[in-house]
Amino acid sequence: MRILEVSNLTVRIDDQTLLSDVSFSVTRGTLHAIVGPNGAGKSTLVNAILGQIRFDGRILAHWRRNGRIGYVPQSFAVDRTLPVTVADFLALTRQRRPVCFGVGRDAARRIGAMLERVGLAGFEQRQLSVLSGGELRRVLLAHALDPLPELLILDEPATGLDRTASQWLEDVLLAARDRDDVTVLMVSHDHERVKRHGDRVTVLDKSVVADGAPADALA
Amino acid sequence: MTSFYAWVTGLAHSGVLPADFQYPFLVRGFLCVLLLTPMLGGLSHLVVARRMAFFSAALGQAALTGVSLGLLIGEPLNSPYAGMFGFCLLATLGMVYVKRRSSLPPDTLIGVFLALSLGLGLVLLVAVTRQFNVHQVEAILFGSLLTVTDSDLLLLLAVGVVVMVLLAREYNHLLLDSLSPPLAGVEGSDSRFLDYFFAFLLALSIVVSLKIIGALLVEALVVVPAAASRNIARSTRGYLLWSVAVAFVAGAGGLIVSNRFLVPTGAAVVLAASLAFFVTLVAGALRRDALGRFLRGRQAAGIAIALTGLVLLAARVWIGALLVAAGAYFFKFGWPGAQDK
Q1: Does B212 map to a domain?
Q2: I want to staple B277 with a disulfide (CB 3.0 to 4.6 A). Which of A173, B65, B122, B228 is the partner?
Q3: What is the tens place of the pLDDT at every residue in B176-201?
Q4: Any idea what DSSP says for residue A160?
Q5: 0.80 exceeded by the pTM?
Q6: CATH number of the domain bearing residue A205
Q7: What's the total number of domains in chain A?
Q8: Which region among A200-204, B172-176, B336-340 has the lowest average model confidence (pLDDT)?
Q9: Does A45 reside within a domain?
Q10: The domain containing residue A32 runs over which residues?
Q11: b/e per residue, B56-77, with b = 16+ CB within 10 A?
């Protein structure tokens, strides 16, 4: 039932302890939220799970399908010196041919379907640098959801989104969980939304403060 | 190669090629440009994307130190490749290693390496010039066609093929890692490997380019084509194509200017590249207004290029036939990358 187990996780950088003895688990097919104040170590926890920083302790994943992790980062600073289009960006991991030689037909078809799924049909030739924050987040979500991951990790995905876009994001995440059996692990500041739709929540402040059903953990 | 040079000389005498091509050293230089420009142009947009422009400058200085070291250990003056490759490789490994481990900004660290290699290079250069004529070492600093041999050409061909094949193999990973290292990591890219890998390819390319472009100026050909291309490119494919095109025009143009006016090849190439940058800057601004929309049209571009070719043909410069063919291509298919707009 568990897809992810984090045991006694400690992260230290330059004599500073960013996370201390964090233990929790994520159940397969659920929407699990990580909440906490600024500087609580939420993004550090995500980076540790993604294997991008050194840590003490153990992180264990139990894969059943493709073992793919979809990831939507908190920030994606687009380099304005790069004329990379949405299609170029999405093709980077969807074709073997170097993207500088063009996007292949199969990849182009697949990218068209991906963009339609996130409401950005026809955005293929837009440059990443001219997209709004909400549009860029949709592109990143399209990237994370294809192929369907077993675990979808989102770091504060609603930051900078208006109410309509937040509602759309919520619908997409719930559909991924309920229809496609994707486990969602999401860092969030929105306690009300987490209470409404989260299956489980871990409250973090360098270590685990509370862990359980949203109504109890966020009380 | 002698028969090849004789054939090209014959073409130059008959007017099919410009008269400059009657000199074998210029033919050799042109072949160098043909090999160099796809390699450096192809690398240049990734150099800009990975913010390694300053790193390239440091590698050029390191190559100078490598030349001095090569001469000190007894390598021939005309091909001190072991010294250059060896020291550039060491400098590359050192810079990438320290950059990945230090919390200091990369440009600060590269500045330290640049100062170190320049100081060491100058000290060794003084030691070397007690034994050799300093004017010969100047060829490494500023580039010279006269010193390029057939062996250099073969080395350039071999390295060019290896660099382009390896670059094509890892291109998508390199670009994704440049855009977002965390995302690239999740998709299975090894950021550490890519850092060393790209720096290694860059070092190889710079070392084999030195005899033409020169240690002090090679960085410009690694950075300026991408900067010029960025002014007009609208997609990754356009970025690559324009980078290679600008590098080629700068290389060929610089070669001709260098031959006609007897100025250092590297300097002429860099000036041509810089001119191309300002031309594309204006072109980039133009294409945003009505005139630009007209010029961008594939028919207008095709007709203009084909007419230029016809004018050349009328002047009995037969290479103009290539421009007529290119004009027909643009008329039919438009500018490279234009469909990505």
Answers
A1: yes
A2: B228
A3: 999 988 899 998 899 999 999 999 99
A4: T
A5: yes
A6: 3.40.50.300
A7: 1
A8: B336-340
A9: yes
A10: 2-78+149-217
A11: bbbbbbbbbbbbbbbbeeebeb
